[in-house]
Design a protein that fits this description.
- The complex is a heterodimer of chains A (113) and B (142).
- By secondary structure, chain A is α/β, with parallel strands linked by helices.
- Chain A has 4 helices and 5 strands.
- Chain A has one domain: 2-Layer Sandwich (Transcription Regulator spoIIAA).
- In chain A, strands 1-2-3-4-5 form a 5-stranded mixed β-sheet, with helices on both faces.
- In chain A, α3 links the parallel β4 and β5.
- Chain A starts with a strand and ends with a helix.
- The mean pLDDT of chain B is 95.
- Chain B has 142 residues and is α+β, with helices and mostly antiparallel strands.
- Chain B contains 3 helices and 5 strands.
- Chain B has a single domain, classed as 2-Layer Sandwich (Heat Shock Protein 90), CATH 3.30.565.
- The chains are: A alpha/beta (113), B alpha+beta (142).
């Protein structure tokens, strides 16, 4: 994992990831994002995964945990433009349809006009 | 046949570096990006498994990768530790439930390898994977 950046657009929390999501960084990532999720004023979380070059089962576990946390707050979580590597790993563990994915900007604008 | 031994301590950052080093060796030898991705993922899972479980409640011990290149037929990978080992045999490699946060690593490895085995040799715990690589996917020099 190289970087991640959190950006608030109205009531949507955009989290942009770059690089790898593996065991090496998931604990720190979870702590930092958990702090942001305590803010009550957002309605949805969008994870931009277009620039993820590698994700393993630790990274998938992180996405599942984040999804559970967000859904538990009565909010929604979307994967935005998951990279081919993310899609491949999700398919491998049979979670390709577990998450709601947004494939392009038009779809995103329709969801969050 | 060429064999490579790589060794480090079972810590998160070091284990990922070690698996990447092994992937570099493989990537110098075979051409297919999908196959390299699969090996990268299988190695990352095996090393992460050691970091998470092998030395739990202990000082982190050794993590070893042995890569055997056997052109034009297959690649063998052994990932070993000297920690607590698996508690129950046979080891369950089923996929986890969708909402589970963990428990997918062994399933991923078993799906990506043509032959997948978990072995114990004295104090050494070994994850063994044999991956077929078609003849045309090897670099010409191999």
């Amino acid at each position: 994992m190289d970087t991640f950046r959190i950006e608030r657009r109205d009531k949507v929390l955009f989290i942009n990831f770059k690089g790898e999501i593996t065991l090496e960084i998931t604990s720190d990532l979870k702590k930092q994002i958990d702090a942001t999720l305590k803010e009550p004023s957002f309605e949805a979380v969008v994870l931009d995964l277009a620039q993820i070059t590698f994700i393993d089962s630790s990274g998938i576990g992180f996405l599942v945990a984040l999804n559970t946390r967000v859904m538990g707050q009565g909010k929604r979580l979307y994967l935005f433009q998951p990279s081919a590597q993310v899609v491949k790993t999700l398919e491998l563990v049979q979670l390709a349809n577990f998450f709601q994915s947004v494939l392009d900007e038009n779809e995103l604008k329709a969801l969050f006009p | 046949m060429t064999k490579f031994h790589l060794l480090t301590k079972a810590l998160p950052a070091a284990s990922r570096q070690l698996s990447k080093a092994a992937v570099h060796i493989v990537a110098d030898t075979i051409l297919d990006k999908d196959k390299i991705f699969n090996i990268d993922l299988a190695l990352s899972e095996a090393c992460a498994n050691v970091v998470r479980h092998a030395y739990r409640d202990m000082e982190p011990g050794d993590l070893e990768i042995v890569v055997t290149l056997d052109p034009p037929r297959f690649i063998e990978i052994e990932v070993s530790d000297w920690g607590r080992g698996f508690g129950t045999w046979p080891v369950n490699v089923k996929n986890a439930a969708p909402h589970a946060e963990g428990g997918r690593g062994l399933f991923i490895m078993s799906e990506l390898a043509d032959i997948f085995d978990i072995r114990k040799e004295c104090e050494k715990n070994i994850i063994y994977m044999k991956i077929k690589v078609e003849e045309q996917l090897w670099t010409p020099s191999e």
